[in-house]
Amino acid sequence: MTVAVDFAPDPQDQRVLRFTGELTLAQLEDLPDRLGSYGGEVDRIDLSGVRRIDTVGAWIVHRFAATRDAKIEGLNEDSHHLFDQVSQADQPVVQKARPLPPVKRVLDELGTATILSLRTLVGLLGFLGGTVIAAGNVIRHPRRFRFNATVQRFEVVGVSALPIVGLMSFLIGIVIAQQGAVQLRQFGAEVFTINLIGRITLRELGVLMTAIMVAGRSGSAFAAQLGTMKLTEEIDAMRTIGVSPMEALVLPRTLAAVLMMPLLGFYASMIAILGGCLLCWATLDIPPVTYIQRLREVVPITDLYVGMIKAPVFGLIIAVSGCFQGMQVESDAEQVGLRTTSAVVQAIFLVIVLDAFFAVFFERIGWI
């Protein structure tokens, strides 16, 4: 049975479009084309003569009524429910938000970034507390200590980093010596280049540049490794069998970074001093014996203490930041990359902030 379309004015002279027959997919035929070519005005659509209607028929009538701003009448209870569902489905899923004024947008972004930073800081402190608790549990139960995993992390964090840290420190020593010599030569004080090299490498740059290198190398690796394990549900499996991820994964990495950082920092300082020695010998005609003797005279032992005190703290920050970000991976592989980047940025930022704090602290106690 085909669908018939009838027109009839009502008593108020309104245009009424009456449907009769069956508004189903099998009976529609050319109804969409006829409705599309209809050019008259429609105030109401009467469906009281329709015996049966399905979703396709309801959708065609609804869209036609929406374009003509017409009212649909003559619906029974089932048809009314069907048209309600079609009308809800026709609503846009995403509504475009009105753009904020520039000032409000900047303030909104600043507020969002501040809230995110505070939440991250709170989470990082909580993760640090969890690491301390895990260390206390291992101390009370030494058999739970992962010796092999810790030794392996010693190699990854420390031994494998020696070439790149050494090359970086050697070049930094040369740059410091060259720039210092150029500036001091104006005052005839080239010999004080040794003071500059010795103090700045032992006290600041040796440990600081090593921390930045370890953050980019090992901190990122910690985040990527734990993030991948979290994504593949290996960490959940460890919890299921009664193994603590904090003791098995986080504690060995943290211990390796804390113990290796002082050694790497001292190694970097010595290599930087060696680079400065070679440049002083080549450009300032200062022999190595004189260079070493001058270092012993002008560099106090407290400079070495300052660097060695900062190094394990930097190592702790790097390891905790990397492991914390790795454990935050939740949904997909993209999160691994994002969390790895966040781990490096967070670790370097905190290292520089703490370095500034240590500089003020040691100046206050007279270690200058």
Keywords for this structure?
single chain; 71% helix; 368 residues; disordered N terminus; Transcription Regulator spoIIAA; elongated; four-stranded mixed β-sheet; alpha/beta
Main structural class: alpha/beta
Helix and strand sequence: EEHEHEHHHHHHHHHH
Task: Return Rg in Å.
Answer: 37 Å
| Alpha plus pi helix count | 12
Beginning-to-end CA distance, first to last residue? 100 Å
Mean pLDDT: 87
* Overall outline: elongated
Overview of the molecule:
The chain is an alpha/beta fold. The protein folds into two domains: 4-89, Transcription Regulator spoIIAA, CATH 3.30.750; 120-364, no CATH class. The protein is 71% helix and 7% strand. The chain contains twelve helices and four strands, in the order ββαβαβαααααααααα. It has a four-stranded mixed beta sheet, covered by helices on one side. A hairpin with an 8-residue loop joins β1 (4-7) and β2 (16-23). The longest helix has 39 residues, at 102-140. The protein starts with a strand and ends with a helix. Residues 1-9 have low confidence and may be disordered.
Secondary-structure blueprint:
Elements: E1 4-7, E2 16-23, H1 31-37, E3 44-53, H2 55-68, E4 71-73, H3 77-89, H4 102-140, H5 147-157, H6 162-184, H7 193-231, H8 234-240, H9 245-283, H10 288-298, H11 301-327, H12 333-364
Parallel strand pairs: 2-3, 3-4
Antiparallel strand pairs: 1-2
